[in-house]
Amino acid sequence: MASANFVDVVIVGAGLSGIGSARHLQRDCPDRTFALLESREALGGTWDLFRYPGIRSDSDMYTLGYTFKPWLERKSLADGPSILRYLRETAKETGVDKHIHYKHKVLSASWSSESSTWSVSVQRSDTDDIIEFDCRFLMMCGGYYDYEQGHTPEFSGRDDFNGQVIHAQHWPEDLDYKAKKVIVIGSGATAVTLVPELSKQAAHTIMLQRSPTYVASIPEEDSWSAVLHGVLPTSWVYRIVRWKRILLQIMVFNLSRKRPQVMKKLLLGQVREALGDDYDIKTHFTPNYNPWDQRLCAVPEGDLFTAIAEKRAEVVTDYVDYFTPTGIRLKSGRDLEADIVVLATGLTMKFIGGTKLIVDGAVIEPSTLHVYRGMMLSNIPNLVQVFGYTNASWTLKSDLTAQYVCRLLNHMRKTGTTMAVPRVASAGVEDEPMLDFSSGYIVRAVEKFPKQGKKLPWRVYQNFILDFINLRLRPIADTVLKFK
User: Across 113-198, where does the E strand assignment appear?
Assistant: First the structure.
């Protein structure tokens, strides 16, 4: 028997994916009831959690924004508060906010084939009570990393340091870095965002990296958008620029994979133009991997390079030996002085938020599963994990996923079926890691995630055009997805 908290669809997470998925359900499946379960006290996910100075997206808002809500601001690379405002507006304008249950942390989800329902166990952080939500379909929209803690390496002598050590994921609201010496440990998106922003007020800012990352300078405002806004309606401009950005992302990624030396020359040429021939680009900005083997870091209008050129910031490429009372001793023997050390050392990945999956009484180990069409999981009925692109904007894939779910739900309603489950054929699937990226945060956790295969429908493509064809145009029914 269904509980009092029964809905057709439970959406876990009220961030970018969850709000978008709820809106697609509203429009394309208006006869379905749904609820969003959010563990935190506010919507927004990443864009509400991260509060460090300069927080922004390294994906342009024409593709990070939703298909159904044009991004109206001129800045293409938007700051965190602007993105959060966009999400709040979307939730309020559509009425999705009325379906959000805050302080509801999902602990486990148990499927019953007998009743064709999921029973979702939820802990309320305001009361510690454990309650149940029952649903026909489950959408996991909580992203792929641990909201409670980031990756924090062990550093010898850290307790000897007389200054402050903080992790960028947990930025203190009252941190005063004005006229202070700051070291940011890391070289990824968080570090290249923090360094130019901190350098505006800090006495000196150092980006301390073990190895370089490819950094690309991106215009803050899209050139097409600036021209088209004067002659076309906003909605047209959004669609045109969105498709231009999609095709550009695909072109850059394919060029990086097929002609890596060409892409490498273009990226390093940008750095050389900004910093001059005398700067040691080989040491500080030339990685030992090809472009897009790890995610590119985008900086608006080359602000990181400007901070370096103006001597407000410095890049140091070396290993931490140990912390000293006044800073950090490097493996090379050099001492770096600091009042504050910021750990921009990466994320800790967590599959579907750590939710325990149970199917007909059996606990499921995620690493034994295979990903179907980039979203469903082998032998797991009526469940979709919303997982965005690693080489493009997250929302491009989350929108496609939500639209596919709506097509699937309507197909099930039309055919009178209550269960849809991808089944692996007896011949099996040739295993490959679900995420083909060499970034540290992925390497540390990829073995705990489901696998992919070498071909459709078990292949996870990082390509919007292919996914658009597979998820929007191809029939729902195939030889793998079984209905009951």
Answer: 117-124, 130-140, 164-167, 181-185
Q: What are the structural domains of the chain?
A: 6-148+349-483 (3.50.50.60), 158-343 (3.50.50.60)
CB distance 322 to 309 below 8 Å: no
For 97, half-sphere exposure in the C-beta direction (CA atoms, 13 angstrom radius) is 12
Q: Burial code of 78-107, b = ≥16 C-beta within 10 A, e = fewer?
A: bbbebbbebbbebbeebebbebbbbebbbe
Tokens of 61: 């808002």
Contact of 372 with 405, CB cutoff 8 Å: no
Instruction: Dump pLDDT digits (tens) for 128-171.
Output: 899 999 999 999 999 888 888 888 889 999 999 999 999 998 99
Q: How is residue 89 written in tokens? A: 């507006």
pTM for the whole thing? Answer: 0.92
Which residues, 6 or more positions from 443, have their beta carbon under 8 angstroms from its beta carbon?
none
Q: Give the number of C-alpha atoms closer than 13 A to the C-alpha of residue 377, restricted to the C-beta side.
A: 26
What digits encode the pLDDT tens for the residues 247-260? 998 999 889 989 99
- Alpha carbons 330 and 476: distance in angstroms, whole number: 56
According to DSSP, the β-strands at 340-343 and 181-185 are: parallel
Q: Which of 130-144, 343-357, 432-446 holds the top average pLDDT?
A: 130-144
